[in-house]
Design a protein that fits this description.
Elements: H1 17-30, H2 32-64, H3 69-118, H4 121-127, H5 129-171, H6 173-182, H7 184-220, H8 222-228, H9 231-283, H10 289-311, H11 313-327, E1 348-356, E2 362-371, E3 376-380, H12 387-394, E4 402-407, E5 410-411, H13 417-423, E6 424-427, E7 436-437, H14 438-443, H15 451-460, E8 476-477, H16 486-500, E9 504-508, H17 516-529, E10 534-538, H18 542-547, E11 550-555, E12 558-563, H19 565-571, H20 574-582
Parallel strand pairs: 3-10, 3-11, 6-9, 9-10
Antiparallel strand pairs: 1-2, 1-4, 4-5, 7-8, 11-12
Helix pairs in contact: 1-11, 2-3, 2-5, 2-10, 3-5, 5-6, 5-7, 5-10, 5-11, 6-9, 7-9, 7-11, 9-10, 15-16, 19-20
Length: 590
C-alpha cells in the first residue's frame, strides 16, 4: 500500500442559499408551462373551496329570514357541485405536480452525475466515497420527494390560505384582522424554528455522510482489519459516528417538538377571536349571523392548508439542506482551463516540482526528471519517499505547488480530460468492475473496439479466465453474474489500458494483487504489447526496476539517483542497498 498520500477525507462544499434558490428557479424555468398549469389549477381549486362556507352562511341567513326548503336545497346542491369541482381540480393539479417533480428529479440526477464525473480526481478521492454516495442517493431522493410531493403540496396550501384569508377580509375587514392577529403565534413559532432548522439539518446530513464513509471504509477493508486485529478500533470509530448521527437527529426532533404544539394551540386562537368579536358585532346588529358563521368556518378551514405548510416545513428544511449538499458539487472550485494546446511530442519533463497535500508540508522537494519517449522507467524508494505522489503529478491528477510537469512542453494538468487520457494513463491497485457485461467493461476504454480486439487485449495481459466464462464477452459481471476476484479485476484493468493505447502508461502497484511470478510475466507481456510506448512503473518489486531502461530513486521526496540498473548497483548507493536488501544479501565489508 502507498503511504505518501493523505487518508483523511475532506468534505465536499455545501452550496450557499442564493445558489440553491437559483438552482430551484432553474428547474422551474425548465418546465415553466407545467408549473404554471399546476399553480393555476390549484388556484381554481382553492377558489372553488371558498364557495362552501360562504353558501353555508347564506343558508343560515336564509333560514333566519324565513326561506323555504327549496332555497336551502338549491344552496346545498351548489355546495356539492363546487366541492366536486374542487376535488377534480385538486386531483388533476396533483397529477401535474407529480409529473413536474419527476421530470425535475430526472434533470437533477443527470446534473449530479455529470458534476460527479467532472470532479477533479484528487477532489473526489479526498472527499471519500461516503460523502458522494450520500449526496447522490439519500440527498437526491429527498429533494426528489420535495419536487414531486412536498413542494406542490405547500404551494397548493399557500394559495388556499391566501384565498381563505382574502375571503374573511371580504366578509368583514375587522374579522379578517382578528384572524390575522390570532395567527401571530404560528408566525413566531415558525420563525423560531426556521432560524435553527437549516443548520441542524445540515449537521444531520454531514453526520450521515461521515457514518456512510466509515461503514464503506470498514466494509472495503474488512480483511485487512481482521488480519491486523483492528476490529475494536473500527467498531469504536463507527460507534462514534453513530452517536454523532443520534445527537444531530435528536436536535432536529427537539425543534419539531417545540414547533408542533405551539402550532396546534395557535389554530384555535383565530377561530375563538372571530366568534367573540363577531358575536359582539351581531348583538349590536352590525353583522349578520351568517357572516360570523362563514368567517369562523373559513378560519377553521384555514387550519388545513396551514397544517400542510407547517407539517411539511420539516421536509422543506431537510430537503433544503439536501439540495444545498447536492448543489455543492457545482461549487467545487475549479481553475479556469487554459486555451487548448497540443503537445509537440511525447517527451515528459519534470522541472523543480514541489508538492504538498493540503495542510501538510511538502512531500516532493524540487524534483527534476526527463522521461524520453518510448522509455521504460522504474521509480523506486522506501515507503513514503514520494513515489506515488510523483506518479500522480506525471498523470495530471495533481498539479505541482511550484515547478512544472509537462508533456511536449504543455503542462500535463492543463490538458482536457479526453486529450490527457490519450497521452497518459495511470493504473493503480484500485481496479473497478462496472455493472454490465465483460464487453461493456472493456469498451469503457475503447467504445468502437471489435470483439476480436477485445479478446486480443485480454490475451495480451494473460486474462485466461475470460475464455472460460459461460457467455464469453456477454457474461454479466457484478453481484448477479460473475464476480472477478482481485487478480482478475487487475487483469481486466490492464486489458483496458491495452485498448486505450496511450503513449505513456504509469503503473502504481497495478499488479500488486498478482503473485510475483505472474506479476512479472504480466508486466513483460504488457510492455511487449505497448512496444514503443513510454512505461513508468512505481516499482515495489525491484525485479521491475531490473527490467527497466532506467531507474529513478526517490528518498524523502527527492530524486537522489538516476541511471540504469547495472550502473546504480555499481555505484553502491541507495539503490544498491535496496537491491541487496531485496535479495537478502549483506552489504560488502569496508
Amino acid at each position: 500500500m502507498t503511504t505518501d498520500s493523505p487518508a483523511t477525507p475532506r468534505a465536499l462544499p455545501v452550496a450557499e442559499p442564493s445558489r440553491v434558490r437559483r438552482a430551484a428557479l432553474g428547474l422551474i424555468r425548465r418546465d415553466a408551462a407545467a408549473f404554471a398549469a399546476m399553480i393555476g389549477l390549484n388556484a381554481l381549486a382553492a377558489g372553488a373551496g371558498l364557495v362552501g362556507p360562504w353558501l353555508l352562511g347564506r343558508i343560515v341567513d336564509e333560514v333566519r329570514g324565513g326561506a323555504g326548503v327549496a332555497a336551502v336545497d338549491r344552496l346545498a346542491l351548489t355546495i356539492l357541485v363546487f366541492a366536486l369541482l374542487q376535488l377534480v381540480l385538486t386531483r388533476y393539479a396533483a397529477l401535474l405536480g407529480h409529473r413536474f417533480g419527476e421530470r425535475g428529479l430526472a434533470r437533477m440526477r443527470e446534473r449530479f452525475a455529470d458534476r460527479a464525473l467532472a470532479l477533479p480526481a484528487s477532489v473526489a478521492e479526498r472527499a471519500g466515497t461516503g460523502d458522494l454516495m450520500a449526496r447522490g442517493t439519500t440527498d437526491v431522493a429527498e429533494v426528489g420527494a420535495t419536487l414531486r410531493e412536498t413542494g406542490p403540496q405547500v404551494l397548493v396550501a399557500g394559495v388556499q390560505a391566501l384565498f381563505i384569508l382574502g375571503a374573511v377580509f371580504a366578509l368583514d375587514p375587522l374579522l379578517g384582522a382578528c384572524g390575522v392577529v390570532g395567527l401571530l403565534g404560528i408566525w413566531f413559532a415558525a420563525r423560531w424554528y426556521l432560524r435553527r432548522a437549516l443548520t441542524a439539518y445540515l449537521a444531520e446530513g454531514a453526520a450521515n455522510s461521515a457514518l456512510a464513509e466509515q461503514l464503506a471504509a470498514t466494509a472495503a477493508g474488512a480483511r485487512t482489519i481482521e488480519a491486523l486485529g483492528l476490529q475494536e478500533r473500527r467498531v469504536a470509530a463507527c460507534q462514534e459516528e453513530i452517536e454523532r448521527c443520534r445527537t444531530t437527529r435528536a436536535r432536529t426532533l427537539f425543534l419539531r417538538s417545540v414547533l408542533f404544539p405551539a402550532v396546534d394551540v395557535s389554530y384555535v386562537v383565530p377561530v375563538v377571536g372571530v366568534l367573540l368579536v363577531g358575536g359582539v358585532l351581531h348583538d349590536h346588529g352590525t353583522m349578520s349571523l351568517g357572516a360570523v358563521v362563514a368567517s369562523a368556518l373559513y378560519l377553521r378551514q384555514l387550519s388545513q392548508p396551514l397544517d400542510t405548510v407547517l407539517q411539511q416545513m420539516e421536509q422543506l428544511q431537510s430537503s433544503g439542506a439536501a439540495f444545498a449538499r447536492v448543489e455543492g458539487l457545482g461549487a467545487v472550485a475549479r481553475a479556469p482551463l487554459p486555451a487548448p494546446r497540443t503537445p509537440a511530442d511525447d517527451r515528459i519533463e519534470v522541472a523543480g516540482a514541489r508538492y504538498a497535500y493540503e495542510g501538510a508540508s511538502d512531500v516532493l522537494h524540487g524534483v527534476d526528471l526527463t522521461v524520453r519517449p518510448g522509455e521504460r522507467l522504474a521509480i523506486v524508494g522506501p515507503s513514503g519517499a514520494g513515489k506515488t505522489t510523483l506518479g500522480r503529478l506525471l498523470a495530471g491528477v495533481d498539479r505541482p505547488r511550484t515547478g512544472s510537469v509537462t508533456v511536449g512542453r504543455v503542462p500535463v494538468a492543463d490538458l482536457a480530460p479526453g486529450r490527457l487520457r490519450r497521452h497518459v494513463v495511470l493504473v493503480t491497485q484500485e481496479h473497478h468492475v462496472f455493472l454490465g457485461t465483460l464487453r461493456d467493461n472493456l469498451r469503457v476504454a475503447a467504445a468502437d473496439a471489435t470483439d476480436t480486439e477485445l479478446r486480443a487485449a485480454l490475451a495480451a495481459v494473460g486474462a485466461d479466465w475470460a475464455a472460460g466464462l459461460p457467455d464469453g464477452l456477454d457474461t454479466d459481471l457484478g453481484h448477479e453474474g460473475h464476480r472477478p476476484d482481485g487478480a482478475q479485476a487487475q487483469r481486466l484493468a490492464l486489458a483496458r489500458v491495452v485498448l486505450a493505447d496511450p503513449h505513456t502508461l504509469i503503473l502504481d502497484e497495478a499488479t500488486a494483487l498478482l503473485d510475483p511470478r505472474t506479476a512479472r510475466h504480466t508486466e513483460r507481456a504488457l510492455a511487449a504489447v505497448l512496444e514503443g510506448r513510454t512505461v513508468i512503473a512505481v516499482a515495489h518489486r525491484l525485479q521491475t526496476a531490473h527490467d527497466a531502461d532506467r531507474v529513478a530513486v526517490m528518498e524523502d521526496g527527492r530524486l537522489t539517483e538516476l541511471g540504469t540498473h547495472d550502473a546504480l548497483v555499481a555505484a553502491d548507493g541507495a539503490y544498491a542497498a535496496l537491491w541487496r536488501s531485496w535479495h537478502g544479501e549483506r552489504p560488502p565489508s569496508s
